[in-house]
Design brief:
Length: 356
C-alpha cells in the first residue's frame, strides 16, 4: 500500500500534530507501507523522508501560534508531490487548514482520510462553516483524536459531517529505553511545553513558591513568555533548558521526580502526559477532558489555573514514594497502550476500508 501523509504545520518545528505525522509515518514504514510525508518546512532541520512544500508563517490558533503555509504555491506543490507519488490513500491531518491540506483535498484521485486534532473552533470555523462543510464532503473517512476534537469538527461542519471514528494520539515509547536519566540536585519537578499562557507554565512557577525550598523545577521548551518568566522567577530554583532534542528532553524527564502539565485549556488530548509516563515519571495534570482521556487512572488531576492545588498534589507525591511508584507503573501501562505500532495498525484498517 502507498499512503501520502500531509501536515498543515511545519515539520521542522516541534508540535503535537507534527509529532503524530512523523511517528505514524515511521510506524507505517515498519509495517511495509510506502509512505510520502508532505508539509511546510522552515529553516530547521528537516526530518528524514519529508517533502517540503512551502515556507511557514506563525498565525494565532487555539491560544498558540501555528506554523502554517497558507500560500497557493504551497497547495500547488503539495498536489504535485502527491500526484507524482500516486498513493492508494491520502491522509490529511487537520484537513481544513489552508495550504497543503486544502490543496490536496481539492484533488479527486485517491480516497482521503482526514484527522481532526484541535479542540477549539475559534472564530474562523463557524464563520466559514458552509465552505468547510462542502470541502469536508470530499473526505472518505473523518477521524478525531478525542471527543473534544470531534465536537470541534461538529461545530465547524455540522452533525452529519462529524468524525465517526476516534483514534487517540500515540507516543514513541521506545525512544526512552536507551536514554540515561539526567540526575538532578534534590527533589525536581519538570515542565515540558511551549511557554505561552495556554500551557500554564506560570501556574507551575507560582506553585513552586508553595513547595519546600529544596524543591527545584526543570523547564523544557521556549516561547513568547520565556523572557518575562525568566526575569520574574530567576534561576535560583528553576533550571531553564530551552528547546531540547528528543534524547536530551527524555534524559531530563527520566531524572525528575514529578512531571506537571498545568495547561488552562484548549487541549484535545495529552500526548505530553503519555511521554512523561513512558519516561517513568508520575504525572500531575490539569483536570481537562483531553488530559483525562490521555491520563485515565495513571495521573493525578488538579483544578486548572490553581498554583496552590498544583503544589499540594506535587507535595503529596513527593512525600509518598509508594504512591509515586504506583503512578509510575500505571503510567507505563497507559503509555504502552498508546504506541505508534497500535495506532498504525488501526489506521491501516481505516485505509483498507476507504480503498475498497
Amino acid at each position: 500500500m502507498r499512503v501520502a501523509l500531509v501536515s498543515p504545520y511545519a515539520l521542522d518545528v516541534f508540535g503535537g500534530v507534527q509529532a503524530q505525522v512523523i511517528g505514524l509515518a515511521a510506524a507505517l514504514r515498519r509495517r511495509g507501507v510506502e509512505v510520502l510525508v508532505v508539509g511546510p518546512l522552515g529553516d530547521g532541520s528537516a526530518p528524514e523522508g519529508v517533502t517540503g512544500v512551502g515556507r511557514p508563517i506563525a498565525v494565532p490558533a487555539n491560544g498558540s501560534r501555528a506554523p502554517v503555509a497558507p500560500w497557493p504555491s504551497a497547495a500547488r506543490r503539495a498536489r504535485a508531490a502527491v500526484a507524482d507519488f500516486a498513493p492508494d490513500v491520502v491522509h490529511l491531518h487537520e484537513p481544513l487548514v489552508p495550504g497543503p491540506c486544502l490543496g490536496v483535498l481539492s484533488m479527486r484521485s485517491a480516497p482521503v482520510v482526514g484527522t481532526f486534532h484541535r479542540s477549539d473552533a475559534g472564530f474562523a470555523y463557524p464563520a466559514l462553516r458552509p465552505v468547510l462543510a462542502r470541502l469536508a464532503r470530499r473526505l472518505a473517512l473523518r477521524v478525531a483524536v478525542s471527543p473534544a476534537a470531534s465536537a470541534t469538527a461538529r461545530r465547524a461542519l455540522g452533525r452529519r459531517l462529524e468524525p465517526t471514528v476516534i483514534l487517540e494520539n500515540a507516543v514513541d515509547t521506545d525512544r526512552f529505553d536507551a536514554v540515561a536519566p539526567l540526575r538532578h540536585d534534590g527533589p525536581t519537578v519538570v515542565f515540558l511545553g511551549r511557554h505561552e499562557e495556554r500551557k500554564g507554565l506560570e501556574v507551575a512557577l507560582r506553585a513552586l513558591e508553595f513547595l519546600p525550598g529544596d524543591v527545584r523545577m526543570s523547564v523544557i521548551g521556549d516561547g513568547p513568555q520565556t523572557g518575562r518568566l525568566r526575569a520574574r522567577y530567576g534561576e535560583e530554583r528553576v533550571r531553564w533548558f530551552g528547546a531540547l532534542d528528543n534524547d536530551d528532553a527524555a534524559a531530563v524527564l527520566k531524572g525528575a521526580d514529578v512531571f506537571v502539565a498545568p495547561s488552562i485549556g484548549g487541549e484535545s488530548f495529552g500526548v505530553v502526559l503519555l511521554e512523561a509516563m513512558a519516561a517513568g515519571v508520575p504525572v500531575v495534570a490539569s483536570d481537562l477532558p483531553g488530559y483525562r482521556l490521555a491520563g485515565a487512572n495513571a495521573a493525578r488531576f488538579v483544578s486548572p489555573g490553581s498554583p496552590e492545588g498544583l503544589a499540594r498534589a506535587v507535595q503529596e507525591l513527593l512525600a509518598h514514594p509508594s504512591e509515586r511508584r504506583e503512578l509510575v507503573l500505571a503510567g507505563l501501562r497507559q503509555a504502552a497502550s498508546h504506541s505508534f505500532g497500535e495506532l498504525s495498525r488501526r489506521y491501516l484498517e481505516c485505509y483498507a476500508e476507504v480503498s475498497r
